[in-house]
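Run Group 2 truncated hemoglobin YjbI through structure prediction, thanks.
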Amino acid sequence: MSDRERSTLYELMGGAETVQRIVDAFYPKVQQHPLLAPLFPSDIEPVIEKQYLFLSQFFGGPTLYSDAHGHPMMRARHMAFPITKDRADAWLGCMAEALAEVGLPPDLRDFLLERLKGSAYHFINTSEEE
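Sure, done. The structure for Group 2 truncated hemoglobin YjbI is below.
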């Protein structure tokens, strides 16, 4: 198997620099979204840092999140927040905009979003009626 065939998604998308650009493009959209903004603290910097660490690891890069915070246990970490399907969809919409903004090719954007959908929908813990 060649090195090219062993490339991780993290490497294919551009590594640390691209992940940081995605996170930097993503959070202003989240902060402006009426369904998402109330879930986030006014000091968003720690959230941005954790998202960078997590996405780096999630896409096959270094285990930055686990090294700093232990096992991700992302569903458990999100249980304190009322996450509905509409909020999961909104989160994915903001991420789609961020991926486009940083200039990722459409096929790679679609693949990344498909990979993130599983997590986004796994975090749903509240019905729309609540």
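The CA atoms of residues 12 and 108 lie 9 Å apart.
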